[in-house]
Write a sequence for this structure.
């Protein structure tokens, strides 16, 4: 199984467990770390709407909790007509632990739909380097 197939399978399995009773929009995300481990999560909504969390945020939290620090590639999977892309906040979350070249994949239940580098989703991003250079 290729790493992309593994990411797809992990995101799909996580999406099956999404808790999205308010939007009905189930999302799964899976990332491969630079160490080669895969972390996946689903979105978790909340009756207090802003408290809900995106699938990407959960996958990143799982990676960090395991002691991993670098996203090699990440895949997000949803059932929307157009390829789903990480929300603005999650683009920033990914940027923190990735590089501008890190690939962000978008998939639907049927398979991969799009792949593009993070720099295209979040150009000229503010990041850790800005703080270090201050
Ligand atoms: N959502 C994600 O989990 N990831 C995305 O990339 C887009 C949006 C979730 C948040 C919310 O639970 C639902 O999808 C609708 O916005």
């Amino acid at each position: 199984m290729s790493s992309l197939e593994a990411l797809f399978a992990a995101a799909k399995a996580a999406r099956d467990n999404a808790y999205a009773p308010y939007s009905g929009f189930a999302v799964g995300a899976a990332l491969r770390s630079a160490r080669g481990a895969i972390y996946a999560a689903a979105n978790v909504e909340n009756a207090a709407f802003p408290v809900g969390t995106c699938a990407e945020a959960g996958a990143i939290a799982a990676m960090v909790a395991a002691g991993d620090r670098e996203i090699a590639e990440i895949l997000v999977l949803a059932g929307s007509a157009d390829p789903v892309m990480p929300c603005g906040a999650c683009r920033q979350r990914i940027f923190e632990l990735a590089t501008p070249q890190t690939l962000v994949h978008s998939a639907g239940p049927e398979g991969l739909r799009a792949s593009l580098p993070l720099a295209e989703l979040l150009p000229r991003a503010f990041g850790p380097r800005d703080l270090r250079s201050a």
